[in-house]
Fold this sequence. Notes:
alpha+beta, five-stranded antiparallel sheet, 43% helix, 21% strand
Amino acid sequence: MEPNILKRIFFDEHGHWDKFVRKNEGRIRANVLKEVAKFRDCGNPKNGFKLLVCEGCHDLRLVPYRCKGRFCTTCSCGETEEWSRLLEEEVFQVNHRHVIMTIDEGLRDIFLKHRHLLKEFMNEAVRIVKEYFEKKHKITPGIIAGLHTFGSKLNFNPHVHMLVTMGGMKKNGEWKSYDFVPFEMLRKQWQTVVLKLIRRNLNDQDKKQVQSRLQKAYSNNGEGFYVHAPKQKGNVKAQLGYIGRYMRRPAIAVNRIVDYDGEYVEFRYHDKTDGEEKTERVTVEEFIARLIRHIPDENFKTIRYYGVYSRRIKALCKKLVSLWQQTARKWIVRAKRMLSRRTWSERLREKTGHDPMTCPKCQCYYEYKGEVCPEDGQLTIKVALCSNSKAVLERMIRDVTGVEKQKEARKEKEAGKRAIKQVPSRQDGNKLHMPAV
């Protein structure tokens, strides 16, 4: 399997990642090491695989397990597409606003150094919007929040994206629509909340170090921090799909990497100051340093659900709204059914137009025959549907792990030693002649 360009940058013959780890030993977060290691072994059959056999020509196909890591570009892109597809159907089919809340540039390094503030950073952003709807209109909106820590140049730029229903549910289940967002009020509130959040969670020594930055962030933003929530036009379902993919996208897409020559990486980015597409060329070490900053801490959820989309009450809210609509005979909200996740073959079939379960040789279908999983550091057969499948899986395990090659090498080595021992030595006078080896 041909590795993508990001994998080559990290793990090719130059060994950039290993050099980076040695140079920064003790300063890299444990979860970063864990996620990059998963990315490195993604698709490696030594971590387990499934056996598929064509029912027509009996062609064998080995499908390795994927890492499903948060840093892996292959896995994260697939998960993003699937998540946005489910989002299109599961949320209320009403108008939503894509609300973006950012902070002053001088405060970014504070959140980089004190990453534990990011969870409360998300919660406070949501609280401002949610409380506005609850106090002003006496309704509970639905909010899906996503944290981005990256800018277009891979710089550390924490900001919150929110998908907010333009309306909400009353206590009796009635749905009330509303389509106005008070930008000016939210901007000042957001500025106050962020500055208080930093002061509240830092100790005295850290507060002294950042006090000048806090004062500049307040004085340089007289109207408050930037809050943007453009009106959405067009098909609601298409809007939801686009915003969902945008919220959950990785720090950099592979197609943005323009060139890699072993020492430097050139990537494309969108400059928001003039709206033009530009490129930047940096060393591999700088590229890796920028990229791994955006790997979240372990168990940190970058996507969270609030209000009527809260996982605890989402089903109940849909039920209440549906009952109210039947009573009031007002079909304002379409609460769709829950969907099931697609398999990897279904996703590939829709994306490429080709069924990966169809044999390219005879056009028959592949059948699942078993799989192998690592257990106690060794590959073991987890499922084998028949004795033939078990025999094939055992042979594949030997091929993948190189057991047969090791045995053959040992046999050749032992045979060579026996041959040396069998060659007789001869003695002429006081000299001993040994065969050349």
